[in-house]
Amino acid sequence: MKFGNFSNSWYRISLDTEQQIFYATSKQHPEQIASGITIDDAVRKLTVQTQHIDSFKGNSRNQTA
């Protein structure tokens, strides 16, 4: 079994095994954390938070320089 970082995603996922809740954390904004009962739910909530923060700052996560 191989362990490592095999994803180029803009977020990280963790699982609270006691509460069975997934947490999605932004790699660019580590202070942004969202939770959900599924990975998709947590990522969806994080996407909304991150887009709100980026639009407030006048940035877009999808913009390229």
Please characterize this protein's 3D structure.
By secondary structure, this protein is α+β, with helices and mostly antiparallel strands. The chain contains 1 helix and 3 strands. The protein has one helix spanning 39-57, and strands spanning 11-16, 21-26, 33-36. It has a 3-stranded antiparallel beta sheet with strand order 1-2-3. A hairpin with a 4-residue loop joins β1 (11-16) and β2.
Key words describing this protein structure:
65 residues, 1 helix, three-stranded antiparallel β-sheet, alpha+beta
Radius of gyration, in angstroms, nearest whole number? 13 Å
The order of strands across the largest sheet is: 1-2-3
Q: How many beta-strand elements?
A: 3
Structure classification: alpha+beta
Summarize the structure.
This protein is of the alpha+beta class and about 60 residues long. The chain contains one helix and three strands.
